[in-house]
Amino acid sequence: MDDCIFCKIIKGEIPSITVYEDDDVKAFLDISQATKGHTLLVPKKHVQDIFAYDDALAQKVLTKIPMVAQAIKDSDPKILGLNIVNNNGEVAYQSVFHSHIHFIPRYGKDDGFSMAFSDNSAKYDQDALNQTAAAIKAQFN
Ligand code: AMP
Ligand code: ZN
């Protein structure tokens, strides 16, 4: 895609610091470095988000997640954990609309990165949860 920053990175038109590359994916350091070693894994094929993957693309891209995670973890003994984040849609904080997976190494509670999961369990009774689950389950046919 012509005006896509990650397609330009893949084509070498914009510089990047690459840590892994094969026929199907490229992994490079995120320019913002939320924490040291923050890496992005992108499919070489331009797809906007996770909803654009078919099984073949998922096989080519998503199966590489553990390998990239392991390489990052093994690169620095100070890394204690890793957040793997994939934003889909502006409302979900996606700002570059070429699908990518963030690997954010964690060094401790005060390493500059945080995520919060609100506890809304009191808002949903068993009926509401069952209805929600039924709506999702119905999509797998
Ligand atoms: P997201 O908000 O999930 O779409 O994440 C987009 C990410 O792309 C951000 O973390 C940016 O720092 C990163 N980014 C944008 N431009 C570049 C670039 N030229 N090289 C590396 N990372 C970039
Ligand atoms: Zn692209």
TrEMBL record:
Q: Where is this motif: Histidine triad motif?
A: 98-102
Residue limits of the HIT domain? Answer: 5-113
Span-the-membrane segments of this chain are none
Could you tell me which PROSITE patterns the record lists for this protein? Answer: HIT_1, HIT_2
Spell out the InterPro entries in the cross-references.
HINT (IPR039384), Histidine_triad_CS (IPR019808), Histidine_triad_HIT (IPR001310), HIT-like (IPR011146), HIT-like_sf (IPR036265)
Q: Which CDD domains match?
A: HINT_subgroup
User: What's one Pfam family here?
Assistant: HIT
Protein name, per record: Histidine triad (HIT) family protein
Taxonomic lineage of this organism? Bacteria, Bacillati, Bacillota, Bacilli, Lactobacillales
